[in-house]
Amino acid sequence: MASAAEQMAASLNWGVFSKATDLKKRLWFALGALVVYRLGTYIPLPGVDPRILQDLFNNARGAGILGMFDMFAGGALSRMTIFALNIMPYISASIIMQLLTTVSPQLEAMKKEGETGRKRINQYTRYLTVVVATFQAYGIAVGLEGMTGSTGAAVLDPGLHFRFVTVTTLVGGTLFLMWLGEQITARGIGNGTSLIIFAGIVAELPSAIAGTLELGRTGALNALVIIAIMVMVVLVIGVIVFVERAQRRIIVQYPKRQVGNKMYGGESSHLPLKLNTSGVIPPIFASSLLLLPATFASFSAAQGGGPDWLTTFNALMGRGHPLYLAIYTALIVFFAFFYTAVVFNPADTADNLKKHGGFIPGIRPGKNTSDYLDFVLTRLTVIGAIYLSLVSILPEILISQYSVPFYFGGTSLLIVVSVTMDTVAQIQSHLLAHQYEGLIKKAKLKGVRQ
What we know:
Blueprint: H1 2-19, H2 21-40, H3 50-60, H4 65-72, H5 88-103, H6 105-111, H7 115-145, E1 148-149, E2 152-153, H8 160-187, H9 192-218, H10 223-245, E3 247-253, E4 256-259, E5 262-265, E6 268-274, H11 281-302, H12 308-316, H13 322-343, H14 346-355, H15 367-400, H16 410-449
Antiparallel strand pairs: 1-2, 3-6, 4-5
Helix pairs in contact: 2-8, 2-9, 3-11, 4-11, 5-6, 5-7, 5-11, 6-7, 7-8, 7-11, 8-9, 9-16, 10-15, 10-16, 11-12, 11-13, 13-15, 14-15, 15-16
């Protein structure tokens, strides 16, 4: 009986989907944009020998942070392509702007102006993206000039011209991806920035799986270890799905009111608070901030050059090292609380409930409601921050012991599963909206005929 009902629901959804032309256009647009992005990850920077760079990168990626950067870039960094910086400078600029919004009265007032203020802040974020991308691109250009492999230098003709071309190309690639992400959000489906990172991770998964199986074939990895890692991946995915769907529902009661001889209201509703309100943002933000100081350090230390403290810093930031894990965990916890405070304001929620006559049973409206919501949200955020830290850190510790690719880490799995769930939810909402539109049109036609 249940299977028949599920088949009927699936056939209904497929029937609605086949008629939802707007949704199909959005899906095709998003898919086409991601194909363009993936093509760009194979266009190399001019003046760089990719073979020497690949050998040098394979030696340097053991430091950890470069491997994670390459994971987010979908392999574009190891191939040193025009999208080597990926969308990460834009994410870093967004972090900085959100931090400035909390400390700057002018930006905070601009944020409260509505759509106009949001557009101005977005424009400032774009300007800041150019600055961050220029800084990172120049660091990469200088690092590339100092790279020398067993068969020669990585840069064919170093100098001012090479640095200018490299900076211009990398910054242009980042700005194009920023624009592409905005277009996917507006004209496609899902969040464009998250989908770009998602596409880079998923595209490299087959090669990561093949590499892991090859390690098992050659005897570098025990078969039981590979099975244990696969089981761990399945368990992590299950935990992510469970927690991301978990909610704390706070009951909200609305009083009865009499209008004439009829009674209105009196119904109860609920205020859903997600266990992980910040979503996948904290690990992405934490990784982005870690990449800023470590990019140039990793390139320099890979050549054995630079001061001793730079080499020591690069070694301590290796995957599985205590300093790397401690900083990564601290940043995840910080951004979990920070982003939750950005997306949910208990005082504003309490005021809105009071304006509409709603109240939480046993809690006085106004400040008491705000304090209660803040108390509940803080406890939920503590659990959410612990969950994000464990999901991101524990696989890192286990995988660092066996040199398994980054794509099996908790951060990559968290991004893939969360973005997939969010995109599927948006597709379902589009299908539901299209279904309602069809019902409204049918009702209007019946009314006209009658």
